[in-house]
Structure to design on (219 residues):
């Protein structure tokens, strides 16, 4: 019976969404399941995706992960239409709040087994500054044994092979590359000889480079 129900659901979904993929169907099923578990009368925090929150409203909404490469996803920047879709999702997320909405981002986070230095989402820059109250939070945060992260810059202790130019690189810095030209640093990951930078180049798209060999120049 369960298999037949699955076949029927796939058939109905494909009939109403002829261009949809299997991934779209699985996404739709998971989102429906999440919404079905929401209890409006429950005095509790509810976790859900922006997609599943469509049509719902809450007194207070928290939107986290507002960083480049997370919201929006950098690998989707290749098409303006995809970026616009994520911008619309951001609008949907904000408008779920009846009274207050908290927008948060991290200066650094642990991703893929290493500390990644993040830059705030471009969507935050598009919010009317007259409608928000900004709080930078704690000024300094220790990460591991050797690293200290600051909101405006970072440095790493114990790596003598870093030259001054590489020490000066930070998220948001504008740099130039011999081949790719001018760009802006979106993310810095790793340390020492394994440090990598993700850069959005003006004419070459977004690329990840090994700092040691990139020969970047600060502008």
């Amino acid at each position: 019976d369960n298999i037949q129900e699955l076949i029927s659901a796939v058939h109905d979904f494909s009939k109403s969404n002829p261009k949809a993929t299997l991934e779209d169907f699985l996404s739709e099923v998971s989102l429906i399941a999440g919404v079905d578990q929401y209890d409006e009368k429950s005095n509790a925090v509810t976790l859900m995706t922006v997609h599943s929150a469509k049509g719902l409203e809450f007194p207070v909404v928290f939107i986290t992960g507002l960083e480049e490469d997370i919201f929006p996803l950098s690998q989707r920047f290749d098409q303006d239409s995809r970026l616009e879709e994520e911008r619309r999702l951001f609008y949907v997320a904000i408008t779920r709040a009846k009274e207050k909405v908290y927008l948060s981002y991290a200066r650094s986070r642990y991703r893929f087994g290493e500390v990644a230095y993040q830059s705030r989402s471009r969507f935050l820059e598009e919010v009317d500054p007259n409608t928000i109250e900004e709080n930078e939070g704690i000024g300094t945060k220790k990460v591991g044994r050797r690293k200290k992260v600051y909101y405006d810059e970072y440095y790493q202790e114990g790596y003598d092979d870093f030259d001054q130019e590489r020490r000066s690189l930070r998220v948001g810095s504008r740099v130039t590359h011999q081949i790719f030209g001018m760009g802006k640093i979106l993310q810095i990951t790793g340390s020492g000889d394994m440090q990598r930078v993700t850069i959005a180049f003006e004419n070459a798209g977004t690329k990840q480079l090994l700092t040691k060999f990139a020969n970047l120049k600060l502008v």
The CA atoms of residues 68 and 108 lie 12 Å apart. The first strand starts at residue 58 and ends at 63.
